[in-house]
Amino acid sequence: MTTEVENFPVFPEGILGPELMDNMRKQAERFGAEFKNGWVERVDLSKRPFKVTITGMGEVETEAIIIATGASAKLLGIPGEKENMGRGVGTCATCDGFFYRGKKVIVVGGGDSAMEEANFLTKFATEVRIVHRRNELRASKIMQDRAKANEKITWSLNKTPVEVISDGNKVTGLKVRDNETGQEEVLEADGIFVAIGHRPNTEFLNGQVETDEMGYIVVKPGTTETNIPGVFACGDVQDHKYRQAITAAGTGCMAVLDCERFLEGSATHDWSKSL
């Protein structure tokens, strides 16, 4: 989850991501929205009413669905990573950063998220090392400038992570390979945060909704309609380009309006035409 949201309207000083979410939830509840927590096990979109099986609730039938499952952090897929998840390897500096007060940490990645994670971690860690497999960073100039100006941040560029090193109980370092020389070395660290991008959370759909080559849901341009009438998608689950809080919120509003019109059977919209 993003540490601090600085580009959302109405908050000139920025706002913490969890606080923004809580405010949105309270506002929705004020207008009658109901929230129920559960894990979606499977969906059947073959015909209406659609069937959604939810842990603890059983099967629920619905005439329309809005998919807003977002995207999750990608992992490196190297030895020692999964084994040490939660024991020195993480993907959320906001959640776990305070565990590393007075310690050394590594952030893997070269985009905005990696720069933000690194800057946040300097509030606690004595040293934050950014490891990126290329010489060039993908992060925006302002995010790069912030990271480069931070005296606690050091750099290991053009190096590929090879293995997470641990003593059996906790992480002790990250083995990396220099992409030019092929030489390997172990960078000492008490914690490793992976910030290399995201993957859309669409696995539970089992291919029933059209997705692109990266797994993001395909929507009809200018709408939130999927290839299945009555199924809509909004937010990062259908957006790999902008990935901003405000654009996600905007498409959320679009999805609700599209869904409402669908349920009302709007005569001015031909819902039978899919992508």
UniProtKB/TrEMBL annotation:
It holds the Pfam family Pyr_redox_2. Its cofactor is FAD. It comes from the Bacteria. Residues 40-252 form the FAD/NAD(P)-binding domain. One of its GO terms (molecular function) is thioredoxin-disulfide reductase (NADPH) activity. PROSITE patterns: PYRIDINE_REDOX_2 (PS00573). Its EC number is 1.8.1.9. Homodimer. This is Thioredoxin reductase. It comes from Parageobacillus toebii. The lineage of its organism: Bacteria, Bacillati, Bacillota, Bacilli, Bacillales.
